[in-house]
């Protein structure tokens, strides 16, 4: 069986025409974050803890000032992704289980 040569431009066009999602290898499932309204609804329905509680858990795990907090879906679960800024200028990203506030990961 002989292979036909493919022009580089054609090969690029074939690859570019079928986008594939980029998923990090170390993440168990892709994340999609909720809007402010969706977050309020999830909190009101009791699906997740209050953002202020998530902030408290994150500051305990990675002391510093909370600069960003997001509620995201990871697979079927809710997670809070909290970014803290330490006094030495280092940034930590704390992932918490949405329902319990338990620390899942610190980066």
Task: Describe the overall structure.
The protein is an alpha+beta fold and 107 residues long. 27% of the residues lie in helices and 31% in strands. It contains 3 helices and 5 strands; from the N terminus they run αβααββββ. The protein has helices spanning 8-16, 36-44, 51-61; strands at 31-33, 65-74, 77-85, 91-97, 103-106. Mean pLDDT is 83; it is low at 8-18.
Number of helices: 3
**Percent range for helical residues?**
25-40%
Name the poorly predicted regions. 8-18
Sheet of most strands:
5 strands, antiparallel
Widest sheet: strand order? 1-2-3-4-5
Percent in strands:
25-35%
Structural class, judged by helices and strands? alpha+beta
Shape summary? globular
Rg, Cα atoms, Å: 20 Å
Count of strand segments:
5
Instruction: Output the helix-strand order.
Output: HEHHEEEE
| Gap from first CA to last CA | 50 Å
Query: What is the mean predicted local confidence, pLDDT?
Result: 83
Quick description:
By secondary structure, the chain is of the alpha+beta class. The protein has helices at 8-16, 36-44, 51-61; strands at residues 31-33, 65-74, 77-85, 91-97, 103-106.
SSE blueprint and pairings:
Layout: H1 8-16, E1 31-33, H2 36-44, H3 51-61, E2 65-74, E3 77-85, E4 91-97, E5 103-106
Antiparallel strand pairs: 1-2, 2-3, 3-4, 4-5
Features:
107 residues; 27% helix; alpha+beta; 5 strands; 31% strand; 3 helices
